[in-house]
Amino acid sequence: MQAQLLNIKGSEVGKVELQDTIFGRRPKPEFLHEYVTVYLANQRQGTANTKTRAEVSGSGKKPWKQKHTGRARAGSFRSPLWRHGGVTFGPRAGHVHLDMPRRKARLALAHALSAKQAAGALVFVESLGVEEAKTKAVTVMLKSLNCVAPTGCTMLVLDAPDAKLARASRNIPNLELTLAGDLNAYGVLRARRMVVTRPALEKLQARCASLAAVPSVGGGSPAAAPQTGPKTRKARKN
Q1: Is the distance from CB of 53 to CB of 80 less than 8 angstroms?
Q2: Domains of the chain by residue range
Q3: CB-CB neighbours of 125 under 10 Å
Q4: Alpha-carbon gap, residue 61 to 109, rounded angstroms
Q5: pLDDT tens for each residue of 65-92
């Protein structure tokens, strides 16, 4: 699979070769949903905490006797039914980390990139270097590449940190910079447009090179079973 290679002015300067195992898969929404669920769950800090009736301050003495007062039965001042009492089934502090195999995470990245490539949301450029750290230079470059998304974010994928480009683009809303080694499926899915440099593409394909032998999730046809006659149930002898 080939794609156009542009310069920062939006003119075609050549072609880039895209691996079918990364950019030519058939995306599976169920698989991507599984990855996004795990990713977002692991971003939670898990610091929300409420006090139970055993932790709130208050006496353990019975407010009044059980019977013959004309009032409802009560056993504690710290009851969740009372003001300043404990909280029933409230959030408790403690983060639970969900694990996902690295190879499965890379496979999810390949599915996300394949979805973006099929939607025409990927733009490949020779480089994204700027001579001066000026916001106007990045704005003009994005307009030339037709990567100014009215909604959602535009992501620039680099192979190495670029201080000038980071400084020139930090004031542009809905614009993110990331490295090819830090790219994940969630970041790819939430980006409306992606601009990938040639060196970043090479690093990305080298990172996912082990997926060459991994079939698409749910794709392909199972091995043909031997053709046998219909199964019959034998009568059980009493």
Answers
A1: yes
A2: 2-43+99-213
A3: 25
A4: 59
A5: 999 999 999 999 999 999 999 999 999 9
pLDDT digits (tens, 9 = 90+) for 31-68: 999 999 999 999 999 899 999 999 999 988 999 999 99
CATH H-level superfamily of 2-43+99-213: Ribosomal protein L4/L1 (3.40.1370.10)
Pairing label, strands 2-6, 153-158: unpaired
Distances (CA, A) of 75 to 36, 60, 63, 71: 46, 8, 6, 12
Which token pair is 132? 């001066």
196: Cβ–Cβ under 8 A, 6 or more apart, which residues? 122, 123, 124, 125, 157, 180, 204
Q: How far apart are CA 149 and CA 9, in angstroms?
A: 17
15 DSSP assignment: E
Q: How many residues does the chain have?
A: 238
User: What is the separation of C-alpha 39 from the centre of its chain, rounded to a whole number of angstroms?
Assistant: 5
Residue at 133: amino acid letter? A
Q: What is the rounded CA–CA span in Å between residue 4 and residue 125?
A: 8
